[in-house]
């Protein structure tokens, strides 16, 4: 698609491919959401979208992607990749920026289908978008956040070299919950071997990046 080249962007790792989803990918991602993303007794998300019934979770997963595409601008964008392992969609990894041309800062968020958790995929897919951010887009910072009881997400941030960046208190299911913030600096980042970015050049203006800079 010449006018929306983001749809051809790919980030690859030793085990994974991250891409904007096709209709079939969206169906597979929606099925994963319907199956469940986490223990129902816990809530790792600030917006509790997984409290919805399975069919509503599935439909909402697809609608979220459509909303991101329709709202995309160089000033504010959210790029939600599907994560593919061995030909199967296993989850989604987002990278987002607001005023990126000035701030050079991105944020990330993700989820994995429950049957694909505990295999190191979460670390690898976040590494992929950090490679895109720092080596592809020229970011200076990447931020992330997780509730204090989301030990898996906290472990990924620490493993990848993020620094503590404070905390905030959010309402979660009607109760106050501490969310910890993390920040990764460009100078603390080195992309491991085996990671690649494909089709980025035509996409740079859509990310607020001047290709000639």
Automatic annotation (TrEMBL):
<dbReference type="Pfam" id="PF13302">
    <property type="entry name" value="Acetyltransf_3"/>
</dbReference>
<dbReference type="InterPro" id="IPR016181">
    <property type="entry name" value="Acyl_CoA_acyltransferase"/>
</dbReference>
<feature type="domain" description="N-acetyltransferase">
    <location>
        <begin position="16"/>
        <end position="187"/>
    </location>
</feature>
<protein>
    <submittedName>
        <fullName>GNAT family protein</fullName>
    </submittedName>
</protein>
<dbReference type="InterPro" id="IPR051908">
    <property type="entry name" value="Ribosomal_N-acetyltransferase"/>
</dbReference>
<dbReference type="InterPro" id="IPR000182">
    <property type="entry name" value="GNAT_dom"/>
</dbReference>
């Amino acid at each position: 698609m010449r006018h929306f080249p983001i749809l051809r962007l790919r980030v690859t790792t030793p085990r994974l491919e991250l891409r904007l989803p096709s209709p079939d990918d969206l169906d597979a991602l929606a099925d994963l959401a319907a199956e469940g993303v986490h223990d129902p007794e816990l809530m790792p998300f600030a917006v509790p979208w997984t409290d919805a019934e399975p069919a509503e979770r599935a439909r909402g997963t697809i609608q979220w992607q459509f909303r991101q595409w329709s709202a995309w601008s160089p000033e504010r964008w959210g790029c939600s990749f599907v994560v593919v392992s061995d030909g199967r969609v296993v989850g989604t990894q987002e990278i987002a920026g607001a005023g990126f041309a000035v701030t050079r800062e991105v944020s990330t968020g993700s989820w994995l289908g429950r049957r694909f958790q505990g295999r190191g995929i979460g670390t690898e897919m976040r590494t992929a978008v950090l490679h895109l951010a720092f080596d592809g887009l020229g970011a200076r910072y990447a931020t992330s956040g997780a509730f204090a009881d989301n030990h898996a997400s906290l472990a990924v941030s620490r493993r990848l070299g993020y620094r503590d960046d404070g905390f905030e208190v959010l309402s979660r299911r009607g109760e106050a919950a501490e969310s910890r913030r993390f920040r990764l600096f460009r100078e603390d980042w080195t992309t491991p071997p085996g990671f690649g970015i494909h089709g980025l050049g035509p996409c740079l203006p859509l990310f607020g990046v001047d290709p000639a800079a």
